[in-house]
Amino acid sequence: MIENLLLAAFGLAALGSAALMLVLHQPMRVAMALISTMVFLGAIYGLLGVHFIAAFQVLIYVGAVMVFMVYVIMLLEVREAASARYSKLLLPGVGGVVLLVGALCISIWRGAPAAAPATANPGFGISAFSATFLNQYWLHFELTSVLLLAAVVAALAVIRVSRQASNPTDRQVPHG
After folding, report:
1. Mean pLDDT throughout 26-47?
2. CATH code assigned at 75
3. Do the Cβ atoms of 93 and 22 come closer than 8 Å?
4. 120 part of a folded domain
5. In principle, which of 17, 19, 29, 137 could form an S-S bond with 37, CB 3.0–4.6 Å?
C-alpha cells in the first residue's frame, strides 16, 4: 500500500516538474526542473524494482549529463531578463497537463483490459543487460559524449562570434 502511494507521489512530482520545464523562462530554473524530473523517475524505477536502471538514471543522467548542462549554462553566461517569471506558454502548458490528467483519469476509470497470457520471458536480468550493452551499444554511448563535447565547442564558438560582433572594440587590429 505504501509503495502505491509513493509511486503515485513520485509520478505526480515527476509530472509537475516536467510541466515546470515547459513553462519556466530562465534556463537555470528549467535545468533544475529537469534534474528533479530525472530524480523522480529514478525513484519510480527503484520502486518498480529495476534498481540497476534507477542507479543509471541518477548516476548518468542526473550526475553527469545534467551537471554538464548546468555547467554549460553557467559558462555561456545567459543573461536573464527580469521581466517575466514564467513563459508565455504557461496557459497552453496548463491546458495540456489538464488534458493529460483527464485522459489518465478516464483510462483508469474504464479499467485495464484483460491481461495477456504470461509468456516464458524470464524477466530483466542484469547479466543479459550488461552483455547487450557492452557488446552492441557501447559505441553509441561513447559517441554521445563526443557529440555533447562538440555541442559545447560549437556553442562557445557562437557565443564568441556574437560577442565580437556586438562589441567592436574587442576586435584586435593587427599591428604592422
Report:
1. 87
2. 1.20.120.1200
3. yes
4. no
5. 17
Closest CA to 57 of 33, 40, 69: 40
Distance CA 50, CA 36 (A): 19
Q: What is the pLDDT of residue 13?
A: 94
Instruction: Provide CB contacts within 8 A for 85, sequence distance 6+.
Output: 25
Instruction: Round to whole Å and give the CA distance between 121 and 113.
Output: 21
Say yes or no: 35 and 70 in one domain. yes
Cell numbers found for residue 19: 510541466
Range of the domain at 53: 1-79+89-109
Answer whether residue 15 shows pLDDT above 80.
yes
**Coil, strand or helix: which one is 86?**
strand
Give mean pLDDT, residues 33-59: 86
**What is the count of structural domains for the chain?**
2
Nearest by Cα to 61 from 156, 141, 150 = 141
Does residue 12 sit in the same domain as residue 51? Answer: yes
In the beta sheet, which residues pair with residue 127?
none
23 near 86, Cβ under 8 Å?
yes
